[in-house]
Known about the structure:
By secondary structure, the protein is an alpha+beta fold. It has eleven helices and seven strands.
Amino acid sequence: xxxxxxxxxxxxxxxxxxxxxxxxxxxxxxxxxxxxxxxxxxxxxxxxxxxxxxxxxxxxxxxxxxxxxxxxxxxxxxxxxxxxxxxxxxxxxxxxxxxxxxxxxxxxxxxxxxxxxxxxxxxxxxxxxxxxxxxxxxxxxxxxxxxxxxxxxxxxxxxxxxxxxxxxxxxxxxxxxxxxxxxxxxxxxxxxxxxxxxxxxxxxxxxxxxxxxxxxxxxxxxxxxxxxxxxxxxxxxxxxxxxxxxxxxxxxxxxxxxxxxxxxxxxxxxxxxxxxxxxxxxxxxxxxxxxxxxxxxxxxxxxxxxxxxxxxxxxxxxxxxxxxxxxxxxxxxxxxxxxxxxxxxxxxxxxxxxxxxxxxxxxxxxxxxxxxxxxxxxxx
Length: 380
């Protein structure tokens, strides 16, 4: 019997053992229960973006099954954000004619120099800060167009319905289907083409626009089309005179969109560009309502087949022209002949005193000395 136990003054002859403290057991059990709940909660709230890393072997556990179900529900419930309206297809002669009529309203000029062109002249790439359709919707322009042009798309959870992670592009330029998968090496399979290339726009009037207007042009859904990456690279900055989509059935829609964009932003077309667009639209059945030549020129072939009406010859009335009046020429003065020496006058005073003034040439007393002006009359 241990001697260290104290004997009580009364009661059992044996010493009473010390009482055991039980609260640590309850505290330890509570901590274990809380840890289990935390582990369960963390399992059900895993980052949905990491579900692709879940191994097949884990799918047999209840926790893993619950995680997969949550992710699947999250991916399908989050609807994509609203997108712009797809471009209307030009499939009738009426629509083609309307596009041709709008083309005739565009100015026709030569291409301006490319001096000063830079991508930065058209604002931040794919900015949402624009006033065109889709602007200020919280999504960048590239994803706006991917959501519009791709089908069977998957949206990245937590991106407010903006970011496209996968989908299928039925490319109108090549008439092929392209599987799109977002990634560093795969995203370039589907690129966004500027229907009117920004360089072409710069050389046909855009350099005269404000920066805000050029930024709208670069992000306007009417001027954007998702397409095959290599095809977009092949087009580069070509206009309708140098490049058209390989899919001929889409060419009418393609050039009509170019016309719409150039009309909306006050751009012009070059003569070769207009000729190319006109040919494409005419092949689609377009008929211009504006005559290309004056009506007089059109009527000339018809007038040559008609029998001309004989017209009586007309005799012109002669215009009376009076005969010119001959200029008066005075007769030459009569030769001065001195009077016979028997009659002599010293001066005109003597002539007047003799009552002979005036004396004409040939008369007695006439002398050239008396005729000072030599007109044949002396002493006038």
